[in-house]
Specification:
Layout lengths: L3 E7 L3 E7 L5 E2 L13 E2 L9 H8 L9 E5 L10 H11 L4 E4 L8 H6 L5 E3 L7 H8 L7 H14 L3 E7 L1 E2 L5 H14 L3 E5 L11 E2 L2 H8 L6 E3 L14 H13 L4 H8 L3 H13 L3 E6 L2 E6 L15 H9 L1
Parallel strand pairs: 2-5, 3-4, 5-6, 6-7, 7-8, 8-10, 10-12
Antiparallel strand pairs: 1-2, 9-11, 13-14
Helix pairs in contact: 9-10, 10-11
Amino acid sequence: MSHVFGPVPSRRLGRSLGIDLVPHKTCSFDCIYCQVGRTTDKTLARREWVPLEAVLADLAPRLSSHPDYITLSGSGEPTLYSRIGELIEAVRAMTAIPIAVLTNGSLLWQPEVRRDLLGASLVIPSLDAGDAKMFAAVNRPHPDLDFDRIVDGLAAFRREFTGQYWLEVMLLAGHTAIEAEVRKIAALVERIGPDRVQINTATRPTAETYAEAAMPARLRALAKLFSCPVDVIEDYDHRKTRTVLSSADRTSVCELLRRRPCTVEDIATALGFHRLEVIKLLGELQDEGAVGRCRAGGRVFYFGVPEGGPKPPSSRPRKTRERIHAHIR
């Protein structure tokens, strides 16, 4: 499978061409809200998980898709990739497209990790809790990680990094979308000093069903507790274009869904397809057992099924025409 996927629709970055640098769910956290599922390899080991040359070879032909950002993210924690600094330098030599790094921020207390990210255009670490107790409950970190040391690392990186530095704060109903909890987070944000804060919530299927989305009005109210510029992340503006899909498009959809659950509209926007063509393709992939679907937050999401894995119940053969009519209704 290619190490490069997308472009995918990002509510923060527009059309984002992703680079996946670690095996599926290799991470230092096991966040209850993760859209990729539970962590299967919780580690702090930094390795060259995939060959750097292979990543660059995958990236080169995808640059013609003209994404808004090249984003180092994927299905695990990208700073666990030991050659991420070399990768950023190599990508900058290939293209002027800005490079973003989406990280949980857990390793920024390490000077070598901070140095590796200095060449990026934009770095967005996470800060989902205001104290160690909530951090343990929401992020379920590797046992060797210390909350205060992580916050120190976030502040140290701000002092060293000259690019854009945003902090993502994930607020969950019943956990952190509470004024007292957000005030704790806001105090830490004041100390760290990012360019802006992006408040997010769980809009896709989560690793744990009890990780529930906060209502938009609640997010907007809590945003007022921060002293720096704050964005409350809204849904991506969906567009429709192509009506004829190729075999390469089919592969792109499968790669996308193996890394993140998507709605029909997400796929149409990310890859430039017409909505009805996406529905038709997803029907075929469901019949083959390559794709499953689930419902979260009142929306239907599709996800990739690993090769050789069991077929999801939703992938039992049905006529594609019936699926199309169901979506239209």
